[in-house]
Amino acid sequence: MRNSTRHLSVLAAGLFIVIIVATSSAQNVLTRQNDIGRTGRQLNENILTTGNVNTATFGKVFTYAVTGQIYAQPLAVSQEFITACNQIPPPTHCNIIFPADVIYVATEDDWLYAFDATGAASSAFWSVNLAATAVSGGTFVNCQMQIYSGCNSGSALYPDIGVTGTPVIDTSSNTIYVASAVSDSNQAVSTWLHAIDLGNGSEKFGGPIKIVASYPGPQNPPAGQCQTGTGTGGTVNFTASRQLQRPGLLLLNVNGTNIVYIGFSMYDGATHSNGWVLGYAVNGSQQLAQVTGAVFNTAPFGTGGGIWEAGEGLAAETRNGNTYIYVPTADGTFDVTNTTGATVDYGDSLLKLTVNSTNSIGALSIASGSTAYFTPSDQSTRCGHDTDFGSGGVMLLPSDVTVGTHLNLMINAEKLGYLWVTDRDNLSGYNPTGDLMVQKANTKLTRTGNGQQGYWSSPAYYEWGTSPNITKEVFFTITFLDRSVAPGPLNQYNLTPTGPIPVDTNGNGSPNYSTSTLFCTPVPTPSISATSSNTNGILWAVENSNSANSGGSSPACNGSSTGAVLHAYDATKVNNLELYNSGTKLSANTPTKFLPPTVFKGRVYIGTYQTLSPTNGELDVFGICTSGPTGQCL
């Protein structure tokens, strides 16, 4: 539904008023990367074009300061009815209600903000401390003190841990669901799921609810990393101090019930923990509760198997009446093909989880046989060596992207620098003598002194043109762990009916176009904006600029950070002269890793931070210069 009409009855100054507002729901950004296929496409952007995104007419228009780093992608709702009260929850006498375009921002210090997306209001409509609503005296988690002593700026998160995975919005109930890590006054760590009213910031449905879970496991835990436990009848328990809520949340409507699915990896140092997927819904008593059977552990008899995805959301689809969730896992035990002992551990694999839509609605399971998972043939050499298959997110390719008899494809990239294309109807299992996926493309770059390179980000997808001449593209950014090595570009691959990734004569991935900008780690997760007719396609990317990467014959990434830079490229050919870059506008700000830009109604929103002690975050907003509160670019 592209447009809807919303009604609200308001009691104000003794008058009963009915407000009727036409909303543009198609422009809303309700989930990580815009859709549950995780394509990164905003296809209803009718203001920003390849003609007006340039240094003369486009730029930074306003900012909002926040407490904590912004790892979760900002989400947006058009014409939300906001309750203008300063108290959370609002007092019963609060009756000042009005429609507004709202951008929702969650931070690692456990704050959730609702800001005016236009910049017309100088402060938040409302903000709520999620830790305090979960636990009396609660606060965010200190990584070094409460997770592991070796936590530092090179860790997955540092220094504060609160909201990491991108929330998800359910407009049918006017709710934003947020998962947060919380510390109590005794330093005990817990994880909570909040159901927050979009209009006033109050908790709903009896929330928040503490996340607890258990799963059948071995009597004798695994003796070491990558090994399998023995015996049956044991239990594996979800332990909040070991489980990192990294991927974006997923909202699915399963046979009329809206269910929120939450994925977990493990914190650095928690090598014996596993990946989890848990489902929650509002029950018949209007209380938030865990869905019966909606618990899945990726390696319950083994170690590892975390769900990282560089923060990407869990990908899913409903097709032919069936609903599936696709989950890539990190280093861990793999024993599915063993002839004795446990056969339920899926480290370094891609899983197809079936969502029950009949008896136990929302319950999770994995089908038996090779069609429900894919594991690379070199898995035995990956586990324990930090070469995760699940380092990047999964993207479901649209149904018009096919290769021969393979009609439903998905793509992911991983730490060894390969792009994998698999058939969602037959993932092909594990074959130690050779992989049977649709395509494996080596995309490594040749560099002097080449260190490990791979993917710690997720792709974006765009198609344009008129039938039968439609061009279909995916965009990836590869990165190097060795910062003395030259950085890499953002690559554009025009998909083919035989690949779909184009390759050279040696079978190596061959991008059609590459940006002239070379990106240092953390490399950008790109996003796309275009009109509903797939015109004016713009590729957006945020660079972590580096003093050693200033051009010349020997660029590198071992200098100091020189701030965040927003780039915009013509999405039809990214090697053309870029449309825009923000230059030194954000020189005091560091970009948050893996975070894609959010495009909403003519503006681009990115999360950055200025200091880590204390953690002063910032939402930086770009748009047409006349669209800002001052009428000009900053």
Features:
single chain, six-stranded mixed sheet, 3 helices, 2% helix
Mean pLDDT: 90
Unreliably modeled segments: 7-23
End-to-end Cα distance, whole Å, is: 36 Å
Q: Helix segment count? A: 3
Global morphology: globular
- Share of helix among residues? under 10%
* Strand runs, count: 45
Q: How big a fraction of the residues is strand?
A: 35-45%
Structural class: mainly beta
Biggest sheet details: 6 strands, mixed
Rg estimate, integer Å:
23 Å
Describe what this molecule looks like in 3D:
- The chain has 3 helices and 45 strands.
- It is mainly beta and 634 residues long.
- Strands 22, 23, 24, 25, 26 and 30 form a 6-stranded mixed beta sheet that branches.
- It is globular, with a radius of gyration of 23 Å.
- The two termini are 36 Å apart.
- Mean pLDDT is 90; it is low at 7-23.
In short:
The protein is mostly beta strands. It is 2% helix and 39% strand.
Layout: helices, strands, pairs:
Elements: E1 4-12, E2 15-23, E3 41-42, E4 58-67, E5 75-83, E6 97-106, E7 111-116, E8 126-129, H1 130-134, E9 141-142, H2 143-147, E10 160-161, E11 168-170, E12 175-183, E13 189-197, E14 209-210, E15 214-217, E16 234-237, E17 243-244, E18 250-254, E19 257-266, E20 276-282, E21 288-297, E22 315-319, E23 322-328, E24 350-355, E25 364-366, E26 373-375, H3 379-382, E27 395-396, E28 409-413, E29 418-423, E30 429-430, E31 439-442, E32 453-454, E33 460-466, E34 469-477, E35 479-480, E36 490-494, E37 513-514, E38 527-529, E39 538-546, E40 561-570, E41 580-581, E42 590-591, E43 598-600, E44 603-612, E45 615-624
